[in-house]
UniProtKB/TrEMBL annotation:
Residue intervals of the YdbS-like PH domain: 69-145
PANTHER family for this protein: TRANSMEMBRANE PROTEIN-RELATED (PTHR34473:SF3), UPF0699 TRANSMEMBRANE PROTEIN YDBS (PTHR34473)
Keywords: Membrane, Transmembrane, Transmembrane helix
InterPro entries linked to this entry: YdbS-like_PH (IPR005182)
TM ranges: 20-38, 44-68
Protein name (Swiss-Prot/TrEMBL): PH domain-containing protein
Keyword Transmembrane set for record: yes
Length: 158
């Protein structure tokens, strides 16, 4: 099986970095404030704050670029193909005849980066297929195309 053709929007790297930094900032700020206020425990609060900050920044720099190289997606007249994962790669294929709904979601951070997520819900027990990190206009066009293709595709008789 060949990998899906399409990469995500390059702005997804910045979006993922911002998510990592925000996720890291919350515990670092709490530990730093507590370390500043509680003098007897200052060292034991500031040390993990510094370690978390270094690890979070390292992850924010390295992981998103790596993820960008491995995430792929493609839509054909027959199915939606998504490949995600770095160490544990997951390939998801959603046949058009099994698609029930197509949703486009844009959270606040995605809106800032002009990105969107397309969620394709199927009759699968595994759950929806998500294509994250798409340009918001590409996502809207993809949702429209998927809706049109699924309307023209006869349902699965099984």
């Amino acid at each position: 099986m060949r990998p899906p053709n399409n990469t995500l929007d390059p702005r997804a790297v910045g979006w993922w970095r911002a998510q990592w930094l925000l996720l890291t900032a919350a515990p670092v700020v709490v530990l730093a404030v507590l370390g500043a206020l509680i003098e007897p425990a200052r060292f034991w609060l500031l040390l993990p704050a510094a370690i978390l900050a270094v690890l979070g920044i390292g992850c924010a720099v390295l992981l998103p670029a790596w993820w960008f190289r491995t995430h792929r997606w493609e839509v054909t007249d027959e199915a939606v193909y998504v490949r995600t994962g770095v160490f544990r790669q997951e390939w998801r294929i959603a046949p058009m005849s099994r698609i029930q709904t197509v949703d486009t979601v844009r959270g606040p951070l995605e809106q800032l980066y002009r990105l969107a997520t397309v969620t394709v819900t199927t009759a699968s027990a595994k759950g929806a297929v998500r294509i994250e990190g798409l340009d918001h206009e590409t996502a809207a066009g993809l949702a429209e195309r998927l809706t049109r293709i699924t309307q023209d595709t006869p349902g699965d008789a099984t």
